[in-house]
Task: structure prediction
Amino acid sequence: MLPRLLLNDVFRTLIMVLAVAVPVAVPTAATAASKSELNASSRKVLDNLLEREPAAKALYGKAVAVLVFPSITKAGFVVGGQYGEGVLWKGGKPIGYYNTAGASYGLQAGAQKYGYAMFFMKQKALDYLDSSQGFEVGVGPSVVVIDQGMAKSLTTTTLTEDVYAFVFSQQGLMAGVGIQGSKITRLNK
Result:
């Protein structure tokens, strides 16, 4: 009986720590970047990605639009959250602003920053982003995350999916990064 009571105390303490730590670790809209700051950082990371990754450059030439989240913060201990803001680029011009947010639970601990770019290859996928009340990755158009192995074998003739995503600039200590389950919502900027 004693071990169970001790476990309950540890669990309660963990919940209290999370109640304080997660909101502090995950930025909110109150700390949001201005449009010009977001445009500049988004354009910079997109240009760097296109310069470093031939597959990204090939996708960019065929994409209808590209949604770039230059910096996403993810933190958690059993329960976690993530948040970031991005720019939708079409024809080299910013045409919309979005945030990505998500919550998770399970075996996880740590904090990290990363970014990602989503290359919308089909107009119907871009239309879904515009018409939905929140584009949830994993629901709706198919999204394929490009890793280094896939990037080497990707050619413009093998492009069959709605959206391709590149994750970049991973920093911090947290096991794994994924965009599955993230919800993307349009911002009024």
Notes: The first helix runs from residue 2 to 25.
